[in-house]
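Memo to structure team: turn this sequence into structure tokens by end of day. - J.P.
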Amino acid sequence: MTHFQTVVVLPIIGSILIGTWITLYFDRETRMSSRPDPSSFSDSSQIKTKSLNIVLTADLTSAVLSGHVDIGFNRINKDCQSLVLDSKDLDISSIVDQESGEKLEYVLGEKVNDFGSPLSISLKPKTNGVTIHYKTSSTASGVQVLAPEQTLGGKHPYLFTQNQAIHARSIVPCQDTPGIKAPYTAELTVDKPLVAVMSAVSVKSEESETTMTYFFEQKIPIPAYLLAIVIGDIVSEKISDRVRVWSEASNIQACKSEFEGTDDILTAAEKVAGEYVWGRYDLLVLPPSFPYGGMENPCLTFVTPTLLAGDKSLVNVVAHEIAHSWTGNLVTNANWEHFWLNEGFTVFLERKILKELAEIAEPGTGEAVRQAAHLHGLNSLKYAIEVFGEDNPLTALNVNLDGVDPDDAFSSVPYEKGSTFLFYLETLVGGPAVFDPFLRSYIALHARKSITSEVFVNYFKSQFPDVEVDWEKWLKSPGMPLVVPKYDDSLQQKSVEAAKAWSNGEVSVEDRKSLSSKQIISALTLLHTYDNVTLETVQKIDATFHFGDSQNSEILFAWCRVCIKARYEPIVDKALKFATSQGRMKFVRPIFRDLFNWNKYSQHAIDVFEKNKHFYHNICRSMVEKDIQAHQADA
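Reply from structure team:
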């Protein structure tokens, strides 16, 4: 990775702070890593945001949000004379003292790659808050605006944001680091008949002749990446007193049916992790270009429509996002170098939630279900490490992100390697009966805080002083986990047997009837790892099961990968149609990577991506473009 350093020419706006500011905030080589978050220009050791009030008007025709933000803050260092915020492609028109209205001088620095620009505001001695008037860019990295023809309804545009990891700065100037949390209020004005929702509780709305203004309040402090906005022709259906599902009207009944058990998942999660403190838990099913399976925005979880399998077989993603209500949203990684504290813990909690649900459905099966999920997760971990390289430092749990866009480090490693580590710790201390109370106490003690791995390690040591763990190796060694627990594989045996039989050409139509959707996904995932799958075998499986016509996105994805590896040409068009009809990176990137490595179709795959690239969210588009660059560099 290239370590970045910036040379700038700044306009002289008065003489205040210019010389020292250049030294402090643009000597990237020496200063970026010395601040709490290497992905942020702000320094939380000097000053911390305590409140945000966001007032914006949305123009979906120009794809621009305009208005102002009021930022209240506390000076940690009482001698601090400037507030440095993160910004990215924002048009700043003025900044004033929030109380007196006096204009404040500011400097907007040069853009630094994907990190945006530092915005340094000179503070008066009594300034405790600022008001920044601005508008976003039509190409803001955290925003996607869909044309009417890209929506299900086909009549109105649609806007949604995705701010993780460092894209909130493209929507609002802020301390864009998970190390700082603040409550927020907001007002969003939109054209009728569009509806606005946010990662907060809706308070009220006001109507004019042509517009609606929606008011929101998030009382619990959150980091900037959890700020979320959706504006579109959307409707909702009630699932329970605390759960609603949102989507475009033509899709709402399918969404309600698929996610009708959400409150049961939430109740199971409370049994595992403690009280749900966020009030509402709404689900919003986004258009297909959403780049992730889900996003854990408080009070308004985003999910991909690829979960709509029709049989509720993919709702484990909802369990994952619900688990984030405790690990990630309440207990948050202090910066993205400790991302496993968000995702590893959440995967671990998710599987405990699945255990609770399985016990309700079929007593005595819960622990086997949990361990089968861990076992299945190892496959995605192995793939991620294969892609990065087993010696790549980005495959460690604690990573160095100096000069590295956190999006470039994104993979299943913090998810699966992190959860594997926690399972290992659980076995060391005596199993779930001992570890579960520890986990609840960890969450309760660190709720509403942002922490590093060191904080977790120290708390573990305080609770289990006699348990020896090689923390240095576990946290900093690249590659597969130091120890892979021996998981209960009893529930996976059917999948293993099916995969082995299929690989040898032993295919029976009865297999389709005897295997659940999850077992088929597992069997196909295993089949992809085998090297003895011939073209003739794939043809036989296809003729028998027609997996290429499945409405279950996970089955279709796994089948596409099996076929591409076997060089089964009839799958190419289906795989490319799948990869260009939805933008979930979990599916899109592996399919394109696989096709890039098939010489006959490599250029065709690149051409198809280029033709369809504006369909994708900016995050997905830029990641596939980097995959293409890597492929061409290796060619």
